[in-house]
Write a structure and sequence with these properties.
Layout lengths: L1 E4 L5 E5 L7 H5 L11 H4 L12 H9 L8 H5 L6 H9 L3 H11 L3 H7 L21 H14 L15 E5 L3 H11 L4 E5 L8 H4 L8 H14 L3 E3 L10 H6 L4 E4 L5 E2 L12 E3 H9 L18 E6 L2 H12 L4 E5 L11 H9 L3 E3 L2 E8 L5 E14 L5 E5 L5 E4 L2 E5 L2 E2 L3 H4 L26 E3 L2 H4 L4 H26 L1
Helix pairs in contact: 3-5, 5-6, 6-8, 7-8, 9-18, 13-14, 14-15
């Protein structure tokens, strides 16, 4: 038998060793095609762009993994998935066993396989990628997760003795879902509170369906609620509808803050409050979800778009561009004040947006939003920019070019210029310290805040980041919460 451990020495898999790996032969296996909907087809639907792969393709792609002992891909993964161990099982046809390897360290494999920027995580450190395309780790992870879900082969929860302790989780996004699963499996009663009507957070209310089929989130949520007994209270904005102090007064023994960074940044330019000018979250949820899954204030259908302008340069702006195209807009334009080289989002997202017909106006900044005869936005006055000296972010600062103004027609303008943390949550609990920008101060290893019994992880701690980094931090915090509750029970006894 061969054991594979992660960097902390924890056993991840225990597999029967096959014949010695012929790495040279594996390096000769060509990358397998990973199918996608053609651009002309996918712009007419909201289905996932990535198409399913078959078992033989998956097994052959897994064979490209050279099973290097150092496993740099595993170290580059924030949750340290045993990628070589999973692929060893997959290449031998043990699909469910391979999927369960990922389940040991990730409870959101189907989401991470679709949403992680693998090119700068696991695939970016894949040794095969030094001379060829890296192994398609993300696509294989998603494939395995799909097989596990379709086979209904989720591992049965271990029998645990229910404790009398209750945990309130503020936020039902990736971090909240991950922590809830870990804690309820320890016997604790868990209730998730969220401002949205349904669980899922950005997985439901932020990521478009063409990147993540909402049904995958629904299956995960259903498993937590009906199989594991997690409780959910929607339409409850902690800090407004009730406070962190209220949660303790209601008898919760610990509180986990996982409310993310969900406040859309806005532009301080004339016309920003015109009808038709909206932030990214409003645009995406109204376009991607049926009214019954939305709060009352967001249930009015979007007007049929013709000319859409998106302001921003990250992955969310690409989501908005691509959504507008699927809504039938004739002209969809991105306005970004730097060049493509300074963009911080995924190149693959930009490629998809361009393939689908989005137009990019680089080195361009919006000056004002123009009202039409009926009072709605009808255009965006822009100004050309050039790059000057670097600013605090290390990127060259955009500087305006005199006399370069021009107007883009627009009946919808989407502002996608980042997100911030709503400090009202932490302000509703005594002793919870945060930074000037609202980010919660925690112990990086345990998620403990400055208030005993309150823990935090995810975007509300680090700022807008990845699903997988929120997942990793939430799992660490859940372990620390369990230790805290055990000690609390011992002291009470």
């Amino acid at each position: 038998m061969t054991d594979r451990t992660n960097e902390k020495g924890r056993l991840l898999t225990d597999v029967t060793a096959p014949a010695p790996v012929d790495r040279k032969a594996r390096l000769q296996i060509p990358p397998q095609p990973m199918p996608e909907q053609p651009p002309a087809e996918r712009v007419r639907n909201f289905g996932e762009v990535a198409l399913p792969i078959d078992l033989e393709t998956a097994k052959t792609e897994a064979l490209r993994c050279i099973q290097c002992p150092a496993a740099p891909c595993q170290k580059a993964c924030p949750v340290h998935n045993d990628i070589p161990g999973a692929f060893l099982k997959l290449e031998n046809g043990d699909v469910i066993g391979a999927a369960l390897v990922f389940q040991q360290t990730s409870s959101l494999s189907d989401m991470c396989g679709r949403l992680c920027p693998q090119e700068r995580l696991c695939e970016g450190d894949c040794v095969v990628g030094k001379n060829n395309k890296p192994v398609a780790i993300g696509r294989l992870e998603a494939f395995l997760a799909d097989q596990l879900r379709e086979a209904r082969a989720y591992p049965a929860p271990e029998d645990v003795t229910p404790t009398a302790q209750r945990v309130a989780i503020v936020g039902a996004g990736p971090a909240g879902l991950a922590a809830a699963e870990e804690l309820v499996k320890k016997g604790h009663t868990v209730t998730m509170f969220d401002a949205w009507p349904e669980p899922g957070g950005l997985l439901t209310y932020g990521i478009p369906s063409f990147k993540l089929d909402k049904r995958l989130v629904d299956v995960k949520v259903d498993f937590l609620l009906h199989n594991l007994g997690v409780q959910f209270a929607g339409d409850t904005y902690i800090g407004r509808d009730k406070t962190v102090e209220d949660l303790f007064e209601e008898g919760f023994d610990a509180v986990f803050l996982a409310f993310g960074a969900g406040v859309d940044n806005r532009l301080d330019v004339p016309g920003a409050d015109l009808p038709g000018v909206m932030v990214a979250t409003e645009f995406l949820v109204r376009a991607n979800l049926p009214p019954e899954r939305l709060p009352e204030r967001l249930r009015e259908p979007l007007p049929p778009p013709r000319n859409v302008v998106v302001v921003g340069g990250g992955d969310t702006s690409m989501d908005c561009l691509r959504t507008a195209i699927r809504l039938g807009a004739e002209n969809v334009t991105l306005v970004y004040r730097r060049t493509e080289a300074e963009m911080i989002g995924r190149e693959a997202e930009r490629i998809h947006a361009k393939e689908e017909g989005a137009r990019f106006e680089y080195l361009t900044a919006p000056l004002r939003f123009i009202a039409g005869p009926e009072g709605r936005v009808s255009g965006v006055e822009c100004q050309r920019m050039r790059l000057g000296a670097p600013d605090d972010s290390g990127r060259r600062r955009p500087e305006p070019i005199e006399g370069s103004n021009f107007v883009l027609p627009a009946d919808i303008v989407v502002v996608a210029v980042g997100y911030a943390v709503d400090a009202v949550v932490t302000e509703s609990g005594a002793g919870i310290e945060s930074r000037p920008n609202g980010l919660v101060i925690t112990n990086a290893e345990t998620g403990e805040t400055t208030r005993p019994g309150v823990f935090a992880a995810g975007d509300c701690v680090h700022g807008p980041d990845l699903v997988v980094t929120a997942l990793a931090a939430a799992r660490r915090a859940a372990a620390a919460i369990h230790e805290y509750l055990v000690l609390k029970a011992q002291v009470a006894a």
